[in-house]
Amino acid sequence: MASTATTTTTKQYDEDLLIEEYGYDDHFHEHHHGDKYQSNFITTYIFSQDHKIIARQFLITGMIWAFIGGAMSLIFRLQLGFPEESLAWLKPILGKWITINDAGVGTLAPEFYYALVTMHGTIIVFFVLTAGLSGTFSNLLIPLQVGARDMASPFLNMLSYWFFFLAGIIMFYSLFLNTGPFSGGWTAYPPLSALPQASSGSGAGMTLWTLSLVFFVVSVLLGGINYITTVLNLRTKGMSMWRLPLTIWAFFVTAILGLLSFPVLVSGFLLLMLDRGLGTSFYLNEIFVGGQALDHVGGSPILYQHLFWFLGHPEVYIIILPAMGIVSEVLSVHARKPIFGYKAMVYSILAIAFLSFIVWAHHMFMSGVNPFISNFFVIFTLIIAVPSAVKVFNWIATLYGGNIRFNAASLFGIGFVSLFISGGLTGIFLGNSAIDIQLHDTYFVVAHFHIVMGVAAFFGMFAGIYHWYPKMFGRFMNDTLGKIHFWGTLVGAYAVFWPMHYLGMAGVPRRYYRFDNFDTFSHFADMNMFITVAAILTFALQVLFMVNFFYSIWYGRKMESKNPWGATTLEWTTPIHAGHGNWPGKIPAVQRWAYDYGKNGREFISQIEPLAEGEGDQGH
Amino acid sequence: MLANERQGRNKIHPQKFALWAACASIMMMFAAFTSAYIVRQAAGNWLEFRLPDIFFYNTATILLSSLALQGAYQAFKAGKAAWYKGLMVLTFFLGLAFVVLQYEGWQALTRIGVFLQTNPSGSFIYVISGVHAAHVLGGVGALVVAMMHAFLLPFKATPRRKLRFELVLTYWHFVGFLWLYLLGFFVLTGS
Hints:
heterodimer; A: mainly alpha; Cytochrome C Oxidase, Chain A; two-stranded antiparallel ribbon; 3% strand; globular; B: 6 helices
């Protein structure tokens, strides 16, 4: 006993000495070539604490979920576009959810249609565009771009990924329940979510859905705490906040949004669980089921909507801000120009983040909230257009007069700007509570949010993947396939979502299983068919992307120099295959801001290059 | 010199900062509960009742425990090993006592006819104080680890142990402060 205690103290004493000598962030110093915790396959590739491995884990898990979530949308698009066609060929995959009649025609069970819509939303919003986007790039870039050996707590960072993994396993398991996965919409409004008898998915499916999302929130919080702490505390010497690349600003603010909004969702879920299981009446009021009144008295389903959207609205910025940060960086590097209006970009990120907390009720204009209160939310919603427009203006001004390299990364960046404009403009319509009376719950809303935060965020993610792929895998993706991927996806995404605006203006409602029985909507049958075909083709291109991605990991063109794009930021000063700890020697000190392109007659000047005599730095 | 330069630049240790961020996150959870409480109260059908006295007395328990842990910390820094260990054990028992007495408070609620399902006004009290008690129990768990440090390791005020102690101390003060906020909230909203 005594000897163990002594050993522990000696070890601690050594650690303390190291901290004294190098500072707490330099504890990899003595073993930076693959540290001692990474001696075998499991600790290197599975339970890894290296942020670069964790980033790849988030990315590949996110891609698998994107494939599942996207494939689900194809199934319900088939139902909408070709309601008369037989889906019997899906029987091997969907089993009992396809019923085959005597004529051999297979139909999709309506309750499973709702389950597919619900799961598509949940998976894409949380697992792909939150974990897959923010999880990947925050992990990869924060330590590399601020100049740190790893996150503040590599261990919690590892836990963050495994909680996400656990959440995914539970959600995946719920797809195979006999009663089906949850089917009440990704927003899980009560009473559909609160009464287990409400629909077949509201029973075990809803229980697992909630459990999965609670683990997901734990993952987001562990990650977020780490991101914030790392950005504030572990920046290398000389890296002031005004010298941070815009990617880091975006990830930093995103993490703050997550840290402040996800706990509110947990509170909302806890009350929901009590209503479901323990007979409280937070959200449930006097409801008759099968002629029998339930015991619940006086609850308010609107209360849940308030709690949900207090997360739900910041959540869409949790999705789009990282994409914005990535696009700012990618456009600047490939236009060979400093980002236009760096500080305006930072302030608009901060303004968007602040406003995102006071606009949640614009999702509830039609749920019976007081119209005078709606006015307040309309005004702040419309004000978000201002910082958004500042950002769009700055991206275009960055491109203007640039010596643009058109590769897959920069094309996706430019495509992001296009989509963000198209989708953002319809947001101004929907943000008006009066126009929302007509447009709410129609395909206009579907078109709006898919373009502005669905496809746009995917474009930001693609830009990031093509741009930092060499950093992640030491090889390049095939650029020709990347360009085919880009043009196909751009045209395809507009072909899918542009017509939906017309559907929505004509009043075609969301969430319907089929429209061919309504005379009013029958003339849209061809348009729905067109959308479905476009969706299938666009999805096929994503398979091409995946093939390119996985093929290039092993067979892509090798990276020959550290800094293939000629970028200024710190991640390109690490070795091509950097070990845990990132820099083999000392962490470089930062001498200037992140956007010195085309300065002093030089194409670019790295952040680690000292200022010339009399040279001013933009980063102050 | 290098160490000084670094410490000057990073005024707060990252682990401590991470703890503050976590506290902010926990705070948001309770902000959500208490906002939901206000919104639900305004909607009517709200049972008015007097909060059992035990919740007020119990506040003294958690405040005393905070003082005890602060005392243990001062003793730790001053090198008074006996006080350090003694006050830490006292904190641990006061923390447990707080949770037990909260349970007594819930019992007192049932005696005046306020059960979990009776009315949202009561449900909120159970949920909010219950989630708070869960966070206190988390702190008690941290205290157990701190006590293991105190009793199993030789007494030595290294920077690392000081840091670990400060983390526990900060969290413990936080859950105490949180209870003061919640109690004040219940009093002001008049249940």
